[in-house]
Amino acid sequence: MRRFLMVEDHSAFRQALSQVIKWKTELDEDAQAGTLAEGRRRLSMLDGSIEVAVVDLGLPDGNGVDLIEEISETEPDVAVLVLTETRHRERFADSLGAGTHEILTKDASLDEILQALRRLGAAKERSKA
At what positions is 4-aspartylphosphate found (predicted)? Predict the structure, then answer.
């Protein structure tokens, strides 16, 4: 099984996108979280079994960058895709510095999101070889 973590506070968006990712990519099992605290709990419970994390920067209880830093420290092999509404360059720079591999804004098309996930998966496969 290839797992991913989706941390997004808008539940309908999170659930719909998670389902599409499972249908359209090789990632077939998800863990979902709507807050920073829940994302941290899910990350600790999954214990090295996720390949990709999709993280929103604007969470109701904190900054997604904090979770990205934790992922980078505890799960360095996990590829991180930021999917966010913000367009602030400083927030992008902070997330890249924390370990983000790719950033898309939420107005990206579904195809763009899926292509980004496939790129991250392909890069992960190459690094294993």
Answer: 56
Global confidence as pTM: 0.92
Residue 128 lies in a domain: no
129 falls within a domain:
no
Give the integer Cα–Cα distance in Å for 111 and 92.
21
CATH code of the domain covering residue 66: 3.40.50.2300
Is 77 part of a structural domain of the chain? yes
Q: Phi and psi for 52 in degrees, rounded to 5?
A: -135, 140
SS3 80: strand
Kindly give, in sequence order, each residue whose CB lies less than 8 Å from that of residue 55, ignoring residues fewer than 6 positions away. 5, 7, 8, 39, 64, 67, 68, 71, 80, 81, 82, 83, 100
More reliable by pLDDT, 1 or 21: 21
- Report d(CA 87, CA 122) in Å as an integer: 27
Number of domains into which the chain is organized: 1
